[in-house]
């Protein structure tokens, strides 16, 4: 007999003479002549009730079963007498696959998220994390579905790289040099030419630059992979290792880029609502009461758009006492982003055309709108509760402007020769963006900390598991 997943058993349309279930015990309650065991296998939020009669052959063994133990149950699927469940299983045999020690830390009572982070090896067995990781899996699938349906080509960009795509300098070094005794050159500096790749290398912060290479050949591409940032930010929305989806579209401008970003975010929300309904209901009950209403609200309205210059005026006129002062030229901080999305627009909003000096070297210089040539075609999508979930831009496709941007950011043309070549051979207007997958998951689940939507969080000072 092959195994039935509990989600399929619970959704059965008729009783079954014989069924095989495998899973972990959530609770066991004893009555006089039998035990009730709630079994969960992670296929859905709910467990199924198993009735173990005291007459079962191995009942003495079953009596040792506690929360966390692994069982294999054979029996009949019958209509349940109890309330709140349609089906239950009358066991005919139960094999104890693995007992759980009495020290099993996940008990029925609720645990704090902080405590659960310390037992990241067991937390997927809790209701909350089972739900989070089912939604994560589903949305990863939906990401591919969205782009594949649009004929975007999936490109695997490298994880080890020599270039700093964002120019922010917060990269993890990759080296095989002996740190205690590195080879040195004549000036006494560490000699990177003796390193594994014959040069300095890092973990990538973004697949964008390589994505642009492929968009310049295959037209519409996307990447979906892990990215790494060594910024020492201990916030609820920053991780040192996170997953990013980066589409790159040839023959596309900033307007087209914004439209695609909006369509993408709405597609993912719709997909989660359709395929993870029970898990979203759980979040709206126990994590964020407003979640479902907010997701519907977001789906029903067009996202707002507002230039950076307009955003600065809104912030200046807000009468708020900002922790980070607002002035044209300064970067928007989380408090500003959240004010715009939560209080001013009360809706996701795309802020575009940021000052050239605070954005990456590859962004396209904007002409013909004041202040002329002082801004670039950047766009950030800000959402209530989180702030920025997407960062993107139209890219500078004009060689001379790009060289100027690189000089402003003190980047060497020698290091980016291949990137400049794209502007020499059939350069076309193109644009793209990056969606932080974990931030999207926070938005869809209402979970407030990035550490709780990634299986194993990498943040400053923590890399257990
Ligand atoms: O705005 P960012 O830095 O943009 C880029 O990397 C571009 N190369 C993307 C592109 O145009 N192809 O990052 C994009 C998104 C952010 O909006 C945010 O959602 C997420 O990645 N992100 C982080 N998520 C978690 N932890 C961090 N430390 C993050 N840094 C960025
Ligand atoms: Mg950004």
Bound molecules: 4-amino-1,4-dioxobutan-2-aminium adenosine-5'-monophosphate, magnesium ion
Give, in spatial order, the strands making up the sheet with the most strands. 6-10-11-16-15-14-13-12
CATH class of the largest domain: Alpha Beta
CATH superfamily caption of the largest domain = Bira Bifunctional Protein, Domain 2
Tally of separate helices: 13
Characterize the largest beta sheet: strand count, sense, and whether it forms a barrel. 8 strands, mixed
What is the CATH topology classification name of the largest domain? BirA Bifunctional Protein, domain 2
Give me the secondary-structure category: alpha+beta
Query: Spans with pLDDT under 50 lasting ≥5 residues?
Result: none
The amount of helix comes to 25-40%
Describe the protein.
The protein has helices at residues 6-10, 59-62, 113-118, 127-149, 208-218, 254-275, 277-286, 291-300, 308-316, 334-344, 399-408, 417-421, 437-445, and strands spanning 16-30, 34-40, 48-53, 70-79, 87-98, 153-154, 160-161, 173-174, 201-203, 220-228, 241-250, 304-307, 349-355, 375-383, 387-394, 430-436. It is of the alpha+beta class and 465 residues long. The chain folds into 2 domains: 6-98, Nucleic acid-binding proteins (OB fold (Dihydrolipoamide Acetyltransferase, E2P), Beta Barrel), CATH 2.40.50; 125-170 and 205-452, BirA Bifunctional Protein, domain 2. Strand 14 and strand 15 (387-394) form a beta hairpin. The longest helix is centred in the N-terminal third of the chain and has 23 residues, at 127-149. It is elongated and about 85 Å long. The structure holds 4-amino-1,4-dioxobutan-2-aminium adenosine-5'-monophosphate and magnesium ion. Magnesium ion is lined by residues 380, 388, 391.
């Amino acid at each position: 007999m092959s195994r039935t997943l509990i989600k399929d058993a619970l959704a059965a349309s008729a009783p079954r003479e014989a069924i095989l279930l495998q899973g972990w015990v959530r609770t066991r309650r004893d009555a006089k002549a039998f035990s009730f065991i709630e079994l969960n296998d992670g296929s859905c939020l709910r467990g199924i009730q198993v009735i173990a009669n005291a007459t079962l052959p191995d009942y003495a063994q079953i009596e040792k079963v506690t929360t966390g133990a692994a069982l294999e149950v054979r029996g009949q699927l019958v209509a349940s007498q109890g309330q709140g469940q349609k089906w239950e299983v009358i066991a005919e045999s139960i094999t104890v696959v693995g007992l759980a020690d009495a020290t099993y830390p996940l008990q029925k009572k609720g645990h704090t998220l902080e405590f659960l982070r310390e037992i990241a090896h067991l937390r997927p067995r809790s209701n909350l994390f089972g739900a989070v990781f089912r939604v994560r899996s589903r949305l990863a699938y939906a990401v591919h579905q969205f782009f594949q349906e649009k004929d975007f080509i999936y490109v695997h960009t490298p994880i080890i790289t020599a270039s700093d795509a964002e120019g922010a300098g917060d990269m993890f070094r990759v080296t095989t040099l002996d740190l205690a005794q590195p080879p040195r050159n004549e000036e006494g500096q560490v000699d990177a030419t003796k390193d594994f790749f014959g040069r300095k290398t890092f973990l990538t912060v973004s697949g964008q630059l390589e994505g642009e290479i492929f968009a310049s050949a295959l037209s519409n591409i996307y990447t979906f992979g892990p990215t790494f940032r060594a910024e020492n930010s201990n916030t609820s929305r920053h991780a040192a290792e996170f997953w990013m989806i980066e589409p790159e579209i040839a023959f596309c401008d900033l307007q087209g880029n914004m439209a695609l970003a909006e369509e993408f975010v709405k597609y993912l929300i719709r997909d989660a609502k359709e395929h993870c309904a029970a898990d979203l209901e759980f979040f709206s009950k126990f994590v964020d009461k407003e979640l479902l209403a907010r997701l519907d609200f977001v789906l029903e309205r067009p996202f707002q758009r507002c230039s950076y210059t307009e955003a600065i005026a809104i912030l200046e006129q807000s009468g708020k006492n900002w922790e980070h002062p607002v002035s044209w030229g300064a970067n928007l901080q989380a408090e500003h982003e959240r004010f715009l999305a939560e209080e001013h627009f009360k809706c996701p909003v795309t802020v575009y055309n940021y000052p050239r000096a605070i954005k990456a070297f590859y962004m396209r210089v904007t002409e013909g709108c004041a202040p002329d040539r002082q801004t670039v075609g950047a766009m950030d999508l800000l959402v209530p509760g989180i702030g920025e979930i997407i960062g993107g831009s139209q890219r500078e496709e004009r060689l001379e402007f790009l060289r100027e941007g690189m000089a402003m950011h003190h980047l060497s043309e020698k290091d980016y020769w291949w990137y400049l070549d794209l502007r020499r051979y059939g350069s076309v207007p193109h644009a793209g963006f990056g969606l932080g997958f974990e931030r999207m998951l926070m938005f869809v689940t209402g979970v407030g900390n990035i550490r709780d939507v990634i299986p194993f969080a990498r943040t400053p000072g923590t890399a257990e598991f």
